[in-house]
Amino acid sequence: METAKTNHLATQLARGEMLDANCPSREVLVHMTGKWNVLLLIALRDGTMRFAELRRKVNGVSERMLAKSLQQLERHHLLIRRSYPVVPPHVEYTLTPLGREAAERIAGLTDWIEENVQALIGEE
Fold first, then answer.
1. What's the pTM value of the predicted model, to 2 decimals?
2. Which of 88, 111, 121, 123 has the fewest Cβ atoms surrounding its Cβ within 10 A?
């Protein structure tokens, strides 16, 4: 019985306890599921984009929120920021393999939302 208890604890520690306020995975969840971050992950599924391209593609995001969201995604290793030493500055954003996996998983949720939007907003 002790072995089963130990294995369960090891599994919890390895996976994280999202419902625990002190679990670091909660911070990642909050950043990944933030409104702009979800939309950026979906937008970057199409490939590498520059800042202005992302701003046009993700309609409604301010420059400040776009910059903040991109920093969060980079900090969690979901995207790579490449800066080229040219004038004017040229910066590109690309999903990492981890970011591509996250975007694919989030795409499933966003597809489901779009398919069920009428029922979800009460306009059936």
1. 0.79
2. 88
pLDDT in tens, 10-36: 565 556 677 888 888 888 888 788 899
| pLDDT tier for residue 113 given thresholds of 50, 70 and 90 | very high
Q: What is the 3-state secondary structure (H, E, C) of the chain?
A: CHHHHHHHHHHHHHHCCCCCCCCHHHHHHHHHCCHHHHHHHHHHHHCCEEHHHHHHHCCCCCHHHHHHHHHHHHHCCCEEEEEECCCCCEEEEEECHHHHHHHHHHHHHHHHHHHHHHHHHCCC
- Residue 32's closest CA among 107, 111, 82, 120? 107
Q: Which two tokens stand for residue 112?
A: 């489901």
